[in-house]
Amino acid sequence: MGCSGSSQVKGNGTVKKIRKPKPWKHPQPITKSQLIQLRDEFWDTAPHYGGSKEIWDALRAAAEADLALAQAIVDSAGVIIQNPDLTVCFDERGAKYELPKYVLSEPANLIKHS
């Protein structure tokens, strides 16, 4: 307690590391522009479901960053990682933050335009 990052430490003394979500598929094939629209809608409405705007902002920055930077962002924001793919996190006050996979990675059935 009182130690920076102590809430991130698992019982065996190791820090939970962020990893990419497992491959997933959207219910229907989706274009990159549709995926971006879904992400924008999620991030615009997420703070209205509770929790701190600062934590939501940190989670968005982490979701849009590479893994090393994402780890630094959540560590410095005091985010407690429940699932290493960032789908479930908590802040230091116990507020829960759930992120859909579509804000964390692209689906396997993304339509790529040639």
UniProtKB/TrEMBL annotation:
Entry's transmembrane regions: none
How is this protein named in the record?
DC-UbP/UBTD2 N-terminal domain-containing protein
Which ranges carry the DC-UbP/UBTD2 N-terminal domain?
16-112
Q: Which domain of life is it from?
A: Eukaryota
Question: According to its UniProt record, what is one Pfam family this protein matches?
Answer: UBD
Annotated Polar residues bias: 1-11
Q: Which organism was this protein described from?
A: Trapa incisa
Fetch the InterPro entries from UniProt: DC-UbP/UBTD2_N, DC-UbP/UBTD2_N_sf, UBTD1/2
Start-end of Basic residues biased regions:
16-25
